[in-house]
Specification:
Chain A is mainly alpha-helical. Chain A contains 14 helices and 4 strands. Classes of the chains: A mainly alpha, B alpha/beta. Chains A and B meet through helix 1 and helix 8 of A and helix 3 of B.
Amino acid sequence: MKLRARTLKGFFVKEIIQILRDPKMIFAIFFIPVMQTIMFGLALTSEVKNIKFVVVSKPGKIAQEIENRALASGWFSRVEGINGAQVEDPEALIASHRAEAVLVAPPEGFEKALERGNQSIQLLLNATNAQRAQQVNGYVQQIVAEVARANGYSVGGGLIDLDMRVLFNHYMDTTSYMVPALLVMSTFIVLLVVGGMAIAKEKETGTMEKLIVSPCSVEEIMLGKTLPYFVIGLCIVGLILFIGVAGFGIPFRGSLWQITVNSVLFAVSALACALLISTVVHTQQQAMMASVLYLMPAILLSGVFFPVANIPPVFRWMCYLNPMTYSVVNFRAIILKGGDAAFFWQNCLWLALISAVLCAAAYKNFKSKLN
Amino acid sequence: MNENDIVISVKNLVVAFGDFHAVDGVSFDVRRGEIFGFLGANGAGKTTTIRTICGILNPSEGSVTVDGKDVSSSTAVLKPRIGYMSQKFTLYPDLSVRENMYFAGSLYGMSPKQIDERARKLMDFIGLPQRIPDPVSHLSGGVKQMVALASSLLHDPELVFLDEPTAGTSPQTRVAFWALIRRLAEMGKTVFVTTHYMDEAEYCGRIALMERGKIVALGTPQKLKEQFFPVKPLEIAFHAPVQNALREALKQAGIESAVFGNHLRVRVSDRAAFERACAPFAGQFSVKEVEPTLEDVFLQAVSGREAK
């Protein structure tokens, strides 16, 4: 192991100058991850909203109250130009995509049906998206039950009266849930792509020869080429975190040191992947291709968008081999829940283990390729 | 020749990539302070030989020693003594000359002060101004090559390897570059240079001609000329349009000739036979002896080998 401070400093200064001198690099490194996190954080909400809802019933107090309550909840929206009292074929509303949920009162009206109890009320749903339809169903049931209770009817049997307490994310705001994960994802992408290309660039332009004939060691080349990106990675995390907390009001309940430890570990794992890729490619284009091929499954199997618990066990082991997975759960836990120590260290341990294996593989490959 | 004079000693070197022998059993010695030229076409194995001596490639067979030390096992000791200017352009185009120097120096563990000092001397040496603020990509091809040379000399190596340093540069740059190479040798550095410009090889102390992984000739330019041309070639100039007829006559006498512009070049071993073949054209041409060029030597060496 040979590491000289002067050589590492030389690499660091050189890489930073090269990045700062290239506007495209600054754009790719700082602007893209920040934009990605903000844009996806706001756009990719799994909350069910904007449900076009029609109550089909002859005019009555309950029907009116259901409709008002639904609209007031913020989940539902009115379908313009349709009067619930005059609809003849409720199914046609769904078929024509004019409404997504249609609540149909029995011919005698809601009041009569509720008085008798047990009378079912029909709810028509567009279930092309099954997950969404189930949520809509839940919302409507809740609203109907609330209205019924407010008017003194007893709603036994069919509906269970849940007493729900929302922990950690009080407004059930998906932005708060997504930003910590997107932060990990975008930083990982930048480090993998830019880090991988940085070494491929030396090979492609021939400057690698200069490094090889010089007395600098494999460790110095590997560390010298990745250290600048490591620092940049931590800066990106800080920047996004700042924007998320200051700009979007994401609750930050954890401690900075936990964030730092986790960021260090996942930056190392991303750069180890980048090094590994750069040992097998010869040009920047190949490095780019390899990164993309790796990133696609790594992102989908990391829990950023689809909970790992939902993934069938046959494929779940891939999530557990993915360094992004541990960082995603850890970041969410630290930022939203304040970071339980045991849970934090358990994830850090796995992350450290994976990083160590990746580093060792990259080192071994690098060494054998250079000799 | 004193044993101590030998710096680089290559013995039966074979470098194989799979079945392909890029270098196929090459042996030679390089003496301290000489300009050793490596000549040959692209793909002859020059670069592979250099890269093996510099420790970038490992020999498949044979040995390469520098000052008696095996290069593949003592890279740590030898690397700081070697300066290598690759065929590829190894400066960072987006960095300035100074920034490039700083990085190159840091690879050798030099302090910023040492780098500044050496860079100042080297910029003087290559005759460029001290401060060139532009990124290297803005410089002209010739200046780039000069800077690349300076960068490879930054750590003051004793052995300087230049792989096709003048490829693709202007004639002026080539002349200037060779002046620098001579000055390096005067400073006591051993310079190992490859080229495929035959005229440049004349500047070398000794040259090795390489062809398909083998050395086909080795010696001083003068020695090689004498070795391959014991009799100097003749050049025939014509006063009348009898060039083709004379060529035909020579051919029938078993003498090969080559067309050089308006002239004809002949290699004659049997002067009497030549005189007889030329007799019918008396007065229509004139003959003079010429100095063989290294190109002639190269062609001769290669064709001689092919004949074998």
